[in-house]
Amino acid sequence: MKTRWAVAAALILLCLGAALVAGCAREEAEESRVIKIGVAGPMQFVHGQHHWLGAEMAAEEINAAGGIKVGDEYYLVELVKIDTNELLSVEDATNAVERALAQDNIDLLVGTIRTEAAVAIQELMMDNEKIFITCGASLKQMADKVGQDYERYKYWFRVTPLNGELLARASLILLQYVGQVMKEDLGLEAPKVAVVCEEAAAGDALAAAAQQVIPSFGMELVGIWRPSPQATDMTAELTAIRGAGAQIIYTYLSSAAGVTYAKQWGELQIPAASVGINVESQAMGFMEATDNYGDFECSLNTYALVEITEKTVDWYNRFTERAGEFPTYNAGTYDAINIYREAVERAGTLETDAVIAELEQTRHTSAAGVQVFDENHDVIWGPGYATAVGTQWQNGELKCVWPYNWEGITYPGTVRYQIPPWVAEALQ
Amino acid sequence: MIRVWLLRLYRDFKGDILALPGRTLACLAVLALFIAPLFIRDTYILRIITLTAVYAVFAASWDLLSGYVGQLNLGHALFFGVAAYTSAMLNLHLGLPPVLTIPLGALAAVMAGLVVGIPCLRLKGQYLSLATLAFPIILKGLVYLFKEYTGGELGISGISRLAGSRLVECYIALALGAVLCFLIWKITDSNLGLIFHAIREDEITARASGINTTAYKLLAFCLSGLFAGIAGGFFAHYMRLAGPFTLDVLLSFQAIIWTIFGGITTIYGSVAGVIILFPLMEILRAFPEIRMLLFAAVIVIVLRFMPEGVVPWFLDRVEKECPRCKERNAFTRTRCRVCRVSLSEREVRARTTTRA
User: Fold this and answer.
1) Which of A72, A99, A137, A317 has its CA 20 to 30 A from that of B175?
2) B-chain residue closest to A98, CA distance
3) Minimal Cα–Cα distance from B248 to chain A, Å?
4) Does the domain formed by A165-301+388-427 have CATH 3.40.50.2300?
5) Cβ contact (<8 Å) for B239 and A145?
6) What is the dihedral of CA A84, A85, A87, A92, to 10 degrees?
């Protein structure tokens, strides 16, 4: 009798053990069907918040559709938030990414903003042979490395923004367009242009390019001003610009100095239209920050509420509703994750080299345009690809003003550039 | 012969290290730091250990100059940054290996020590501090000005790695950190350290005693620059980047925070400060929104209750000083291990009262 009970108990234990093992194995198998994507950015700042929101939207959509199809299996996307604190500490940023690599086992990294940190993170990701899609840093040299040493840097790609050189070209074309409007509306023969580029690497390139190109646009360069990115007062520069007789100000302001500049430009009623790159003017709170003096400020942008593609308006509205902010180029994490999804699905495997080969074949229609990578894995700019847009604050609303009949492109919803009324009055 | 030597080594170890809880713990901590990487495959933890070792040297070098000599340096990142940039440039442009670029970078930091030291020798107190604070800011300006050599705000990237694996890099850092921190401690424990103490306590008296205080202060700047420079060169090769962030005011302040938290004018206090606070910042990543707030709160609370720093507070509890020979003893002892005088407070008080 005792033996029988012992056998029964042993059988029950065996069954329970087997069930437990099977359960664990299944759970493990299910757990392993997850693709971990690291989203790196300064999460306490608006840049990082846009990185995260863009990624979150992409992950939710992919998971709602069943996940990423790899061969016959579906993998869910799991996001890993990496607060890089990169605006304050580069070393902190690399530590955070190394942590995500070693402890969270991320398969892909998207994001980063500060160039100095992005360069260090690029090296770290290449050491670990993991794919890194930049959505924030514009340094062209990051892409050049792919061309110089493909085997090491093949894991790197950039979705947003355009690289520094292309940003310069696009913003100068925007300047040319505004110049054209000034010529047509005010009868100016050769508008006088003042260049205001903040003291930064990208500012150097833009100032040099502007100096070369502006005369070929039929405009006259009256001077170059280089304020500090930390400038809290630009009265001296703006007064000098007024004194120089400038009719257009071409800007490159990526820092908070953009708010100071725009506020004082409007407040002092400088008789010159302002156009170029002013990152702060891309934010929803720009008008409030400038006490409404920033009206008519015009800047190159990545997204606008026009039909850049059929996806733009819907995505732009959903992002704005969710974030309470207009999307900036950092929200390109949305496109980066979708581009990766498409590449993995085409490759039918998660094997890195196969995914890279498919990433190189990318032709992704996103909210920013059609995204295709060049031989250095940098996003291509131009008609038919991602063009970037010019946006202008018009009576408190951010409107898309460019491309406007540029290379045959005018996105539906685009309006004509408006010359600030006090500028028109002064120059007529 | 070897047996005698080993026996003496054991006796010294037992008498000088095992007799004191603080030293025993420090020894165990170093041992644990050297053994742990053998069992750690996590590159992130190896990275934290490596950077902890590098920053320990950096903080100790600040303690040497500011704690011992009293030259409050608010721009210590200058030495770190100069060495980082020199090592990076020599490696990238001349193709020199890290084994050469790091010492050469440290040499450049020594030169920087001279450049800072000579004009600052005439200054004291807050004027000296402000002057030292200005130097890394000036250098940062030069970095932006000569961007064709320094890479401007992007820095110099793509320099050689120290070794092929994180584990080897970790061991190089640990060995370097242990040797350099021990060396700094030995300097402060030598006659030179006594002179440094004297200069800090009363410079006029020290000069009246025949000490060339100017030369010694300059020497302190150079020594501090040398050690911070080795840390800076190593850091650049480890990160494979030397950027303006290596000259940040924040980095200078970090050295001060680590040292004061651990215990200033001790060397081991600054090392302990780094060992506690640097990984703590990483642990606090679990609370990203309030990470800095928690970090600051920990420092404020700890310094409220341990104003001399964590290590002196701890040592005061586990060790007792002999009232006669001033040698330190474990808290468990009733009599001094050197002069056999009673360490019991009651007996000491009774003896003092009788004498009175």
Assistant:
1) A99
2) B44
3) 9
4) yes
5) no
6) -80
Contacts of B282 in chain A (CB under 8 A): 95, 99
**Over residues B188-195, mean pLDDT:** 95
Q: Which among A88, A92, A116 has the least Cβ separation from residue B154?
A: A116
Q: What is the ipTM of this complex?
A: 0.85
What percent of chain B is predicted at pLDDT more than 70? 97
Could you tell me the two tokens for B99? Answer: 């084994």
A247, amino acid identity: Q
CA distance, residue A292 to nearest chain B CA (Å): 31
**What is the Cα Rg of chain B in Å?**
22
Q: Copy the structure tokens of residue A352.
A: 């890195």
Q: Which tens digit of pLDDT belongs to each residue from A35-88?
A: 999 999 999 888 899 999 999 999 999 999 999 999 999 999 999 999 999 888
CB contact under 8 A, B154 and A98: no
Cα A146 from chain centre:
20
Separation of alpha carbons A252 and A174, rounded Å = 13
Residue B145 to residue A227: CA distance in whole angstroms:
14
E strands, A190-255, are 192-197, 220-225, 248-253
Domain spanning A34-161+309-371, CATH class: alpha beta
Q: Say if residues A128 and A101 touch (Cβ distance below 8 Å).
A: yes
Name the residue with tokens 């992950």. A59
Cα–Cα distance, B140 to B246 (Å, whole number):
9
Contact residues on chain A for B288, CB-CB shorter than 8 A: 43-44, 81, 83
Query: In chain A, what is the greatest distance between 2 CA atoms, to the nearest angstrom?
Result: 112
Q: For residue B354, what pLDDT is reported?
A: 65
Residue A141 in contact with partner chain B when CB distance is under 8 A:
yes
- Residue A29: pLDDT over 50: no
pLDDT of residue A22: 46
Contact A201 B45 (CB under 8 A): no
pLDDT for residue B9:
87
Q: Which residue of A has its CA nearest to B158?
A: A123
Give me the DSSP letters along A313-352. Answer: HHHHHHHHHHHSS---GGGGHHHHHHHHHHHHHHHTS--H
Nearest-angstrom CA–CA distance, A56 and A36: 12
Nearest to A43 among B43, B282, B288 (CB): B288
Secondary element (H or E) of residue A131:
strand A131-135
Domain coordinates in residue numbering, chain A: 34-161+309-371, 165-301+388-427
Please indicate whether, in this complex, the C-beta atoms of B239 and A120 are within 8 angstroms of each other: yes
Q: Measure the CA dihedral A306/A311/A317/A323, to 10°.
A: -120
DSSP for residue B135: H
- Partners of A91 on chain B (C-beta within 8 Å) are 51, 239, 245
**Rounded to 5°, angle at Cα A169 from A168 and A175:** 90
Catalogue all structural domains in chain B, each as residue range(s) with its CATH number.
1-39 (no CATH), 40-319 (1.10.3470), 322-356 (no CATH)
Q: Chain A neighbours among B 89-128 (CB < 8 Å)?
A: none
- Tell me which residues of chain A, numbers 174 to 233, contact chain B at a CB-CB cutoff of 8 Å: 199-201, 204
Helix (H, G, I), strand (E, B) or coil at A401: strand
Distance CA A393, CA B96 (A): 53
Query: For A144-163, how does the pLDDT look when each residue is reduced to its tens digit (9 = 90+)?
Result: 999 999 999 999 999 999 99
Tokens standing for A104? Answer: 């969270």
Per-residue pLDDT for B104 more than 80?
yes
Residues of B in contact with A145 (CB under 8 A): 158
Closest C-alpha to A204, from A111, A321, A88, A115: A115
Chain A residue with the nearest C-alpha to that of B49? A95
User: DSSP secondary-structure letter at B88?
Assistant: H
B250–A204 CB contact, under 8 Å: no
Measured distance CA(B215)–CA(B218) in Å, rounded: 5
Q: With cut-offs at 50, 70 and 90, classify the pLDDT of residue A428.
A: confident
